[in-house]
Amino acid sequence: MDEPSIEIWDLDIIDEVQPxxxxxxxxxxxKKKGKKASIKYKEGxxxxxxxxxxxxxxxxxxxxxxxxxxxxxxxxxxxxxxxxTMEHHTDKVQAVAWNYFAHQVLLSGSFDHSVVLKxxxxxxxxxxxxxxxxxxxxxxxxxxxxxxxxxxxxxxxVKGFDIRAATSSSTSESKPSFxxxxxxxxxxxxxxxxxxxxxxxxxxxDKMVKLWDVSNNQPSCISSRNPKAGxxxxxxxxxxxxxxxxxxxxxxxxxxxxxSYDAAVAQRFGSYIKKSRTHTWVLTWLN
Length: 287
Fold this sequence. Notes:
Elements: E1 6-8, E2 21-23, E3 26-30, E4 38-41, E5 50-55, E6 62-67, E7 72-76, E8 81-86, E9 93-98, E10 105-110, E11 114-119, E12 128-131, E13 136-141, E14 148-153, E15 157-162, E16 178-181, E17 187-192, E18 199-204, E19 209-213, E20 220-225, E21 232-237, E22 244-249, E23 254-258, H1 263-286
Antiparallel strand pairs: 1-2, 3-4, 5-6, 6-7, 7-8, 9-10, 10-11, 11-12, 13-14, 14-15, 15-16, 17-18, 18-19, 19-20, 21-22, 22-23
């Protein structure tokens, strides 16, 4: 997004032309001849582009945002107001992610080469900080354990961390659980499979999408493909059909990869594929 506002759309309304809620944004802009425009922002708004968003899956009215203004904000979508503003980064904040188990715990990743964990219930919480080797592109909590997360970087690497190894209240020098040299260029997106533990997808500006088995913190690439989407900016496994992977790239088209038909995936994660297909059949029958 190029503007500091966040638009919320109601997909139940067909052909809607306006968002149902707008969080923050520009309230007024005055242009004076020969001078820089004077901008007045809405109360609580970001002051620069919004680069990352994360819904809280437990508290459905809570949304976290990351911005080029170096801030992380927590919003109450029901009221349209910013409830907490955090300023613990020194450069653009690219990504935010809520923990699946401890619902108030939030990760943020920045161009300042750091990942910070904060407790959203306490704005003064000093948090934990991990230093990484390049700009942060994306973050993902492991949905199968509350202790682990992965971070993807501009230098093509993916690092895994265990928060139990954090050694102080402010800065952790603990080594990553693993470092994966995943791609030749920036790893813009990562996604854990919600059904099969240790199955991780990565997407990169090198135009490739790869699937990894990260069992025992020893990642191995089990499949890769060029989806012809251009530079890959987004990958995401489906919550309802866990082995469907959505892929978005610079060509502006959406690709879908049914990873359950990949031989290596079927060999390693076949039991989870059978469960997901049974679940999908039951849902289809019930509907």
